[in-house]
Amino acid sequence: MLRIVLSLFCLALPVHLFAAWALDGVGTFRFEPVADGVWVMHGPVEEPNARNHGFMNNPAIIETKAGLVMIDPGSTLEVGRKVIEELQRVSDAPVVAVINTHIHGDHWLANQAVAERWPGVVIYAHPAMLAQAESDRSHAWLELLERATEGHSRGTRIVPPTRPLADGDELTIGSHHFRILASTPSHTDTDIMIHHVESGTVFLGDNAFRGRLGQFDASARIQGNIEALKRALDLKARVYVPGHGRSGSADEVASPYLDYLQRLMTAVREGFENDLEDYEIKARLLPEMSAWASWHGFDKFFGKHVNRAFLEVEAEEM
Ligand SMILES: [Zn+2]
Ligand SMILES: [Zn+2]
Fold first, then answer.
1. Measured in angstroms, how far is the CA atom of residue 2 from the centroid of ligand 1?
2. What is the pLDDT of residues 41-92, one digit of tens each?
3. Which ligand is nearest to the CA of 45?
4. Which CATH number fits domain 12-317: 3.30.40.10, 3.40.50.150, 3.60.15.10, 3.40.50.300?
């Protein structure tokens, strides 16, 4: 009897109140509203592994009159299919466009799942990403994900973006406006940030991390990342969505990472001028960085970031 009453009760409530994508030992994931007509699925704040199946970024959708615009669908075919299942709980509109924020595979290798479900979807990215999407750089990501997820990414293949979006471009889809900011190189040489004008939301890609630090690859420029974040803050948007970590206000999302990068560059410049080595700079700076010490990956990446900033300052001085 109780079971019948419970199932009748459940039937009376919208299904999306219950359902979510559950990853054992990691958490449950669903699209959450962050602004009117804008949802973000905040991924695990960690690196790819077998438990999270490689899911670690923030896929987002924006509802327009022409259908959904999706930003960064995720890392693998399997993850993309799960993300699509979840988005269908909040909207029955098709995805008509995908925007990839940059070339790191955790953000875009799930393009394949979107193209499989909606073959007409148009995929956009920075021109430098279009040029490199099928290069060794992407194949290295496929291999990294397969290794890290212990095979969960198997079957994933590259479905590259085909339409370029450069700094200053404005894309109009279903009467909604998407303004593009690209201050490259920053996190990589392929980053774009997207300002959705109607909702006042800025998608920062990996130009901002929250609660986690990540790697700067060989194409990065930390000073460029600082400039990019300043431009994003100048927009005075209502909502900022980082590449990793929860969305929120400028003070919650963009400023803390900007502060981290600025302290890093300032200390490294000063140290360089005083003929200190990078490990000496690291030791001096460490006590100042307590605000970020609890972020996932701090112990692994802080030293690498000091080293990276040191090389950047050295190159500037040459
Ligand atoms: Zn990245
Ligand atoms: Zn990322």
1. 50
2. 999 999 999 999 999 999 999 999 999 999 999 999 999 999 999 999 999 9
3. 2
4. 3.60.15.10
CA of 56 relative to ligand 1 center, distance in Å: 11
Nearest bound ligand to CA 107? 2
CA of 7 to the centre of ligand 1 (A): 44
CA of 9 from ligand 2 middle (Å) equals 41
Domain ranges (residues) in the chain: 12-317
Cα of 191 vs centre of ligand 1, distance in Å, is 9
**Nearest ligand to residue 245 Cα:** 2
* Alpha carbon of 56 to ligand 2 centroid (Å): 7
Predicted confidence at residue 5, as pLDDT, reads 54
**From the CA of 88, how far away is ligand 1's center (Å)?**
26
pLDDT one-digit tens code per residue, 96-115 = 999 999 999 999 999 999 99
| pLDDT tens-digit readout, 16-37 | 556 899 998 999 999 999 999 9
Q: Residue 280 is encoded by which pair of tokens?
A: 């000496």
Query: How far, in Å, is the centroid of ligand 1 from the Cα of 72?
Result: 11
